[in-house]
Amino acid sequence: MGLQTTRPGGIVRKDDVAIAKNYLTEPGLQVLNRIVNLYMKCAELQALERNPMTMRYWIKKLDEFLKVSGRKLLDHARTTAAEAAKAKAELEYNRYRAFLDTQPRAIDVAFEKTAKELKKLPSPKKPKRGKS
């Protein structure tokens, strides 16, 4: 599916496939974390100085922040593209789940192994009945 990060144990849930950062490599995640941390520090500074802030202000500031840091803006992105990407990711997840459902689970493998081992054991001897 192209996921780069998963939950502990490699578990993938349907919600995970719609989160863009799960497709980033470790270096990409480090860059994203640094950008977010710097941006939040900027927001904290504005709050400490009691500057009024609106969402429109923050959208504008984020664009400026990304430009200054040498990042390209995705001003061509549209909601329909995001919806198509999510639909594609969910389709791939459904294929992945269908594949997993055809594979034996660890508990099933362990059960079958134990059942085979039990068949190899000698049959218990029946006690002889004596005359009373």
Summarize the structure.
This protein has about 130 residues and is mostly helical. About 60% of the residues lie in helices and about 0% in strands.
Which helices and strands, and how do they pair?
Blueprint (H helix, E strand, L loop, with lengths): L25 H23 L6 H14 L10 H24 L3 H15 L12
Explain what you see:
The chain has 132 residues and is mainly α. 58% of the residues lie in helices and 0% in strands. The protein is built from four helices and no strands. The longest helix is centred in the C-terminal third of the chain and has 24 residues, at 79-102. The model has no long low-confidence stretch (mean pLDDT 83).
Terminal CA distance: 74 Å
The class by helix and strand makeup works out as mainly alpha
Strand content: under 5%
Please summarize the sheet with the most strands: none
- Overall strand count: 0
Taking pLDDT < 50 over at least 5 consecutive residues as the criterion, the unreliable ranges are: none
Rg from Cα: 28 Å
Summed up, the helix count is: 4
Helix and strand pattern: HHHH
Tell me roughly what share of residues is in helical segments: 55-70%
What best-fitting shape do the alpha-carbon axes yield? Answer: elongated
Give the mean pLDDT.
Answer: 83
List keywords for this structure.
single chain, 132 residues, mainly alpha, 4 helices
